[in-house]
Amino acid sequence: MSKSYIEIAKEAKYKLAGNGARNIGMLLDAFKDIDPMTDADTYGTGKLINDFEAEIAEFLGKEKAVFFPTGTMAQQIATRMWSDATGTKKIAYHPLCHLEIHEKDAIKVLHHIDPVLLGAPGRLFTLEDLKAVNEPLACLLIELPQREIGGQLPTWEELVEISEYCKAQNIRLHLDGARLFEALPYYNKSAKEICALFDSVYISFYKGLGGIAGAILAGNTAFMEEAKIWKRRHGGDLISLYPYIVNARYSFNKRAGEMKKYWQNAIAVAERLNMIQGVKTIPEVPVCNMFHVYFDFSKDTLEKILTNIAEAHDLVVTMNIREISANLCMSELYFGDSFSLIPQEVLDGALEQLQIELR
Amino acid sequence: MSKSYIEIAKEAKYKLAGNGARNIGMLLDAFKDIDPMTDADTYGTGKLINDFEAEIAEFLGKEKAVFFPTGTMAQQIATRMWSDATGTKKIAYHPLCHLEIHEKDAIKVLHHIDPVLLGAPGRLFTLEDLKAVNEPLACLLIELPQREIGGQLPTWEELVEISEYCKAQNIRLHLDGARLFEALPYYNKSAKEICALFDSVYISFYKGLGGIAGAILAGNTAFMEEAKIWKRRHGGDLISLYPYIVNARYSFNKRAGEMKKYWQNAIAVAERLNMIQGVKTIPEVPVCNMFHVYFDFSKDTLEKILTNIAEAHDLVVTMNIREISANLCMSELYFGDSFSLIPQEVLDGALEQLQIELR
User: Fold this and answer.
1) A319 with A6: CB under 8 angstroms?
2) pLDDT tens for each residue of A295-333
3) Measured between alpha carbons, how far is residue A329 from residues A110, A123, A147, A296 in Å?
4) Chain B within 8 Å of A337 (Cβ-Cβ)?
5) Longest dimension (CA), chain A
6) Quick check: helix, strand or coil at residue B352?
7) What residue of B is the nearest CA neighbor of A210?
8) CATH fold label, A5-21+258-357
């Protein structure tokens, strides 16, 4: 039996995207320098968890940060609390917001919140979209960068204007910062400067940071104390979360400072991909370390070509190929550690072959 | 500054109760024999998680098992689903059920379920208590053993009768088996035989099994497929749960077969404690590896005496002392690995001194 494309792709020595294989060695690496006698955290208490929370709170410029097992949990809780605080069930977000498309309607089924979809799926929403909402909103959620449209970002000026508008209208502003670190180089701002525009902030440790799992929700002290109650309610108050915390700190230290390099690599590769007939990236010039790439080919054809490239150059261009229609495929590419391991001649050879084979 | 009782207790070489210190070495031990190249699980899929779920499903005699980060999450989901399935908001459980006292009212606030408290806080509920409920119930939750009253257990006959009554009345029966393994020796039944009485079963990996965290919910396939949707909604569908899964399997293999020994140790110690004036265990004769012990002394006095014992014998009797009133304290004791490490003469010396000092 011949191998599937995924099997061939996994075996390739070089990967254009990502931070390497998600195997359990990732966990062990993070624990190499930790004393095994270190006390576990216990239900959100203990030096190990509280020190890390304080470190991230400081980094984000927020009074208090709490570690959560997932962003799904953290963000539902934040928006639910803003809804309760303002007495309205309406919150606004992008039509392709994680809460809308990846959480099985939890915000509605569990929290009875009524989302308002701002703008259109294929673009960022704007201040004008927000101004057009003619009912009171508890909260606006902004995802920076907007993952489902290739990691696009509003300009800094627009972001500030939206924040000021929300303040004036008494709309709480929540940051879906699953990929906040990735957005920092584009704005050329610190996390603190960006987070100052928001009332609450969520960040993830396994997107660009390449950790195992885990999230932080940050805000003012009273808000976060209540968020801990909700964390318990959701079943997120594990007796010990240290496997994720130790790895989150390790991944944060390892990759938070690398995002500019990852971004530059994304720009360079996108430029070369856009030179190929029938290949187009969104956005055309990436604003962070990710973009989406569309191929005007069937999934079968594309996989055959990428198999040839993997066999010839030991390099996999992408592992995830989504079929959009009979002759259109999409792939999401994230740049991380793996790119730096590719010798220049391997990269050049692979991209040249891609250009030839897709002709 | 003199040390606190907890500090002194932590330093003692021998511990009457528990499975040893909860430090991060616990995680590393479990990973010693695992190939670091093993693929991580991904959103509930992958060999690592699915093999373990299948193994536990088989052990419990259920069609399907799903790994959850917490029992809090697993049990809310199970009871919510039984409520939805039967179209009634009423579920019944013991007044000291985990859902009632440790979850910040999540079952009410998040799931809008209306619990019926069966029986009284100080005793097990009975079939008669259940029969006295004069409204339709979606679900009855039974905790085996009932932790908050010293780990008591109904007789096998009563358990079977309750199960048959529930079947006849169309009440779904859910097992809070946080400490199911601990209950097996008393019933002298397999987990399968006990679980056959229940429609859904939750077990924990960090109570008697001594793991880091994590839980399994098991039931029929359709029920568990829906439970996975709720797991996503609750924010429990972590991209990777392997740090807990690898440890859960390790802890299960290490301790699931040890419960009879732990129980016998509990019986022996309870007997000796009950011989001391002003000391009483609940239950008098433990039915599993845990019991509660009441001391007719102030917390201060008790801590002083236990400090003396720790200093004289390097053994700590208990770390957790709860003040009930000015002259009454309670402690929960779990027997695990630590007890076996205590030399007989140390144990005898410590218990003799306890008897003398409490006089």
Assistant:
1) yes
2) 999 999 999 999 999 999 999 999 999 999 999 999 999
3) 35, 19, 17, 7
4) no
5) 64
6) helix
7) B239
8) Aspartate Aminotransferase, domain 1 (3.90.1150)
Average of per-residue pLDDT across B219-233: 98
- Whether chain B has a CB inside 8 Å of the CB on A25: the answer is yes
Q: Collapsing DSSP states into helix, strand and coil, what is residue B282?
A: strand
**Distance, CA of A122 to CA of A330 (rounded, Å):** 14
CB B159 within 8 A of CB B167: no
Q: Which residue has the higher pLDDT, A6 or B159?
A: B159
The C-alpha atoms of residue A349 and residue A333 are separated, in whole angstroms, by: 19
pLDDT at A359: 80
B74–A contact, CB cutoff 8 A: yes
Question: What is the model's pLDDT at position A3?
Answer: 86
DSSP B14-60: EESSBSS--BTHHHHHHHTTS-TTSBPPBTTBSHHHHHHHHHHHHHH
Interface of A with B in 225-254 (CB under 8 A): 229-230, 232-244, 246
CATH architecture of A41-239: 3-Layer(aba) Sandwich (3.40)
When scoring A216, A234, A247 by the number of chain B Cβ atoms within 10 A, the one with the most, hence best to mutate, is A234
Report, as an integer, the average pLDDT of A116-123. 98
Nearest chain A residue (CA) to B73: A235
Q: Which of A51, A238, A251, A319 to mutate to test the interface with B (most CBs of B within 10 A)?
A: A238
DSSP-derived 3-state class of residue A300? helix
Question: How would DSSP label each residue in A106-160?
Answer: HHHHTT--EEEE-S-TTS---HHHHHT--S--SEEEEESSBGGGTSB---HHHHH
Cα→Cα distances A257→A32, A184, B6, Å: 21, 10, 41
| Range list of β-strands (E), B226-338 | 279-282, 290-295, 315-316, 322-325, 328-334
User: What is the number of residues in chain B?
Assistant: 359
Contact A56, A108 (CB under 8 A): no
> Is pTM beyond 0.90 here?
yes
Residue B358 binned pLDDT confidence (cut-offs 50, 70, 90): confident
Beta-carbon contacts of residue B180 (< 8 Å; ≥ 6 apart): B144, B191, B194, B201, B203
- What is the average pLDDT score of chain B? 96
- Measured distance CA(B292)–CA(B148) in Å, rounded: 8
CB contact, 8 Å: B73 with chain A? yes
* Closest Cβ opposite residue B24 in set A40, A73, A110: A40
Integer CA distances (angstroms), A157 to A28, A122, A123, A141, A153, in order = 43, 21, 17, 17, 11
Q: Is residue B1's pLDDT more than 90?
A: no
Length of chain A: 359
Of B350, B288, B305, nearest to B147 (Cα)?
B288
Are the beta carbons of A235 and B239 separated by less than 8 Å? no
Quick check: A24 contacting B, CB < 8 Å?
Answer: yes
Average pLDDT value over all residues in chain A = 96
Question: Rounded to 5 degrees, what angle do the CA atoms B282, B286, B289 make?
Answer: 115
pLDDT at B283: 98
What are the residue ranges spanned by the domains of chain A?
5-21+258-357, 41-239
The model's pLDDT over A271-280, given as tens digits with 9 standing for 90+, comes to 999 999 999 9
A7: pLDDT strictly greater than 80: yes
Q: Is A34 on the interface with B (CB under 8 A)?
A: yes
Structure tokens at B157: 């006959």
Q: Of B26, B27, B246, which to mutate for an interface test with A (greatest number of A Cβ within 10 Å)?
A: B27
Q: What are the angstrom distances between the C-alpha of A251 and each of A205, A246, B135?
A: 7, 9, 54
